[in-house]
């Protein structure tokens, strides 16, 4: 069903990074590419339901630095991660731009990709970006999560909770990476030049996400030439797993028609 990534080695390889298209597009046009950037508390396996749904696309699910089979690598900040993602895309996409999808940490990395490598991206669908510092209770909760990150059982617990246990393999993130990411999130700053990206951008959040995530959408207001803001009603942070049918339909509608899905609420 999918190609093995050249970064995945050994018989205990993690979830693949490259997934070949499995059927032609209904409109007969050339196959396009979707790139999914995972959240900071999971790994690329968390896009399992999206890989299943987008069989008419070539799908890339890269491991961010310090995650998955790259968990022994250092996390060196958002600019470095964005350059890493851009190199990954450029090495695997010979013609045309890609549709970029990011969640949480992946959404923040996606913002930096748009700023630093806009020539690679056709459209972007970014959800749940923590672009402003959380309140004290949220920071306390994050610190507690750091103490349990890094264990194999934690990744399997998350995967099992969403019914995708078969997609997760071993632990996703080293504790050192989690701490480095948490430090960057505590002082997160939006990249410059976002208004120079000319493609369509959908900025989303789950209605049940923490307040600082919703507030982060306000910080992005006016940063793009062509952007829409939407709220996923009743959804928490990982709504790609919580409600994959809605998430997949929203991504497809945005990538193919540049329209927000009608079930997503306009906060205005």
CATH superfamily: Alpha/Beta hydrolase fold, catalytic domain
Main β sheet profile:
7 strands, mixed
Helical fraction equals 25-40%
Helix segment count? 9
Give me the CATH architecture, please.
3-Layer(aba) Sandwich
Number of DSSP strand runs:
7
Mean pLDDT: 84
Order of strands across the biggest sheet?
A: 1-3-2-4-5-6-7
Basic shape: globular
Q: Would you tell me which CATH topology applies?
A: Rossmann fold
Catalogue the unreliable spans.
Answer: 1-13, 146-153, 164-170
CATH top level label: Alpha Beta
Rg, Å, rounded: 17 Å
Strand content: 5-15%
How many domains? The number is 1
How do the SSEs run, as a string of H and E?
Answer: EEHEHEHEHHHEHEHH
The quaternary state of the protein chains shown equals single chain
**Global structural class:** alpha/beta
N-C termini distance: 42 Å
Description:
This protein is an alpha/beta fold and 268 residues long. It has one domain: Alpha/Beta hydrolase fold, catalytic domain (Rossmann fold, 3-Layer(aba) Sandwich), CATH 3.40.50.1820. The protein has helices at residues 48-53, 78-92, 105-116, 136-148, 152-161, 175-186, 211-219, 239-242, 244-257; strands spanning 18-19, 33-37, 58-60, 98-103, 121-127, 201-206, 227-232. It has a 7-stranded mixed beta sheet, with helices on both faces. Strand 6 (201-206), helix 7 and strand 7 (227-232) form a beta-alpha-beta unit. It is globular.
